[in-house]
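agent: user wants the full assembly modeled, not chains individually. Plan: 1) parse entity lines 2) check alphabet per entity 3) run joint structure prediction 4) return tokens. Steps 1-2 passed, two entities, 436 residues total. Proceeding.
--- entities ---
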Amino acid sequence: MMTTIDELLERAAADTRSHSAGTSRVPISVVRRHAHRRTGMKIAASALTASAGVISVWSLSVRDSDPASESTLAGDSTTPTGPGSRAGSPSTGVAPTDRNYRVVDAHLSVSRGEATLDVGSEHGIQPGLGVYQAELIGIVGETRAASSTVRLLGSADVVVRAAVGYPDAIEGTARTVGNQLVFTPDESPSGDGQHIVGMVVVVAGGPGSLLHAKTPIGTITQSMSIDGSIGYLIRLSDVRSDSDATIIVPN
Amino acid sequence: MMDPVTARADQHVGADVELSRTLVEEFEVFYAREFSSVVRLAHVLTGSRAAAEDLAQDAFVAAYRRWPKLKGYDDPAAWVRRVVANRSVSRYRRLLSEANARFRLQQERPTPDEWSAATEEVWRAVRRLPRRQAQVIVLKYVDRASVGAIAATLRCSENTVKTHLARGREALAVLLGKGTDDDDD
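--- prediction returned ---
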């Protein structure tokens, strides 16, 4: 007896439903925020840990609603001077924008699906002072190197914040040097498969741009040689045009 | 311009934190209930689990930002499904050109739990159909949606849905070399 299309589709659908019950990502809504008395603020954001090993995390941008704080931000708003340059202090990564959004330095750690961002009180962010909004960021590139350098070409409103380890967090220091960001782990990744899986990219400019930054899965356009090594050319193609950036992540 | 959700949260932060928490909690219930099936819908239409998760995530983020308005809809999930269905087709085409790069990344990763080759053959054929036909086929079979629900999701008439279903099945019969069954719907 001939199998009909309807039967084929029913079988395929049943098979599909039985194989895709689990999900691995969570949306921005699950971001939890609460004040932290000693550090100014602590944000615990659910990381997006995919079964296939892709990790996406959330970063933090801050929009202060306090008038005094906003005036301070406006005073910091210098015009970026070139590719990869940072408005404000490169070392702190403060990036004032036309919307009074700024990306602040935050200690980020990711461990098995949970990301935590600790924001220091040196940024003048205090509990209850303003509006804090965690934003989607993308992981770009993948490297097993003990340290990584990320070169930013294009928008100055993009900064790489930290490296993310898989399956466990890799602690280290990320610092900007000119238009590069260098991440150096505190310790070499262990030999049991732990490795750096990506760099956290923060696109300043408000939620509209950040929310459309993607993980590299859908945005890598080609691989290419950079300084003799193979890297990934990643274009955050869905980022708002005035925040568009090309990021090269060497292996 | 600030989106409605952010604006509303701005107005209430500090003064009425409970409101934004309530919104978030409501949304999380909605998300927990719908996310899996929305990912499944996008997965079939794009052929990529990772892309499906991205699309679903984007759609839910968009829904979150409209939640004060969206939660008043008769069926907020239909809005999310429509967004995902519409974006899936264009995303699928883009994914084709990115396949090599993704393959390279995925070589070092464990293979996710996937459906059978026979199932994939069916969905591959579905993805070759015209956009509307593919959408109604997937909504009907994968989502088990009624003709009325599909019409509401895609904002078209039930007769249009039936037409797309019939034409989609006919086209699939040719692509897969199978017979059709005209006695449903």
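agent: reporting back. Chain B has a mean pLDDT of 72. Chain B touches chain A through 63 residues (CB under 8 Å).
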